[in-house]
Each structure stands twice: as C-alpha cells, then as structure tokens.
Amino acid sequence: MFPDFLENPSDVVAPLLLGCTLTRTITLNGEKHKLVARIVETEAYDQDDPASHAFGGFSERNAAMFGPAGHLYVYVSYGMHHCCNVVCGSEGFGSGCLVRAVEPLEGIEVMRILREAGHAHKHPLKLRDLTNGPGKVCAALGVDKGLYRHDLKVEPLILDFAPLLPGETIDRSPRVGISKNADALKRFFIEGNTFVSKS
C-alpha cells in the first residue's frame, strides 16, 4: 500500500517513512531479481533549510524536489555516490527525505553483487555494511540518475507503507556530514537497528 502521508512537510514524513519498504525489480546477467529493503534511517530537507538542495529555489538539478510527492530525487554526492530522496510536501515547495539507510530483506546476494561491482574487496562485505549509508543504499538497490523523478508507485522501484515492528522506537539527532544548519534535529532512525549508519 502506497503511503498516504507524503504530502506533509518533510519533518513529518521523515519519521513516518521508517519501517516502509522499497521493492526494486532489476535485471542482472539476463535474470530478473526482486530486492526488498526496509527504511531504517531518514533525514528531512526543504527549501527553507540552508542544508537542502532546494534552498535558493528551483533549478535544473533540484527540479524533482519541487514536483509531486511520491517521486524520487536522485543526485550524485562527492562526484561518485548516488543518493536518493523521497519527494514530499506540496507540489511547488521543494521538499524531500533522504533515504539514509535500509535493512535488506530480500535479494541480499544480488545487493552484495551490486555493491561490490567495480570495487576490490579482500573479504565479502559484512551484512550490516551493505546498506548503512545513503550511497550504499543506492548502490545496493541499483538506483542512479536513470530513476530521477521516478514515480514510486510503479516498477522498477516501489515504496510501500509498513508500520514499525512491535517494540521499535524512533530516535532523532542532527543530520550527518553537513555544515549548514548542522544542529537541526532532522535525522530520524529506528533506535538500535543494526543497519542505521551511525549510532
């Protein structure tokens, strides 16, 4: 079931995305695979926030953030890592939630292949290291600029609502790796989850 809360402000949406799932359909070596991951960490951004890509107004790069809620904003970080945001809020107001970490549920071996592609590792990546960061999420799910503005209601990447598991709680903190508005408590995560990027 597609989430019904995405038209709210990013500060509201970011914690509600925790527990929701992303289902990625991908073809690898001629074979179709289904990858499923559960969102465990998010960060909220909007056009009034100096740390946001939407700050300063609409541009060719950030156009997706000003579009309809429920689509994907994909960008490249540090010239090498793809990162993705679930666009939220009212259309015309730049707003999105960074998917910072996910918990792999299905298709883990394919995620591992995608994560290790082009990289030499002496040892296989530990499970917790597959998707515990925004660049890792996109690498493991095969998300790149080809999915810019993708509608998350349809394949090859679908967002579905799922509640927190019994006993799970949400914590919040300042966001990670930013210099502007650095003290704002706009990072949300499932407390104690192994796949959260930083405790």
UniProtKB/TrEMBL annotation:
GO terms for molecular function: alkylbase DNA N-glycosylase activity; DNA binding. Coiled coil: none annotated. InterPro entries: Formyl_transferase-like_C_sf, MPG, MPG_sf. Keywords: DNA damage, DNA repair, Hydrolase. Its EC number is 3.2.2.-. GO terms for biological process: base-excision repair. Belongs to the DNA glycosylase MPG family. NCBIfam families: 3mg, PRK00802.1-3. This is Putative 3-methyladenine DNA glycosylase.
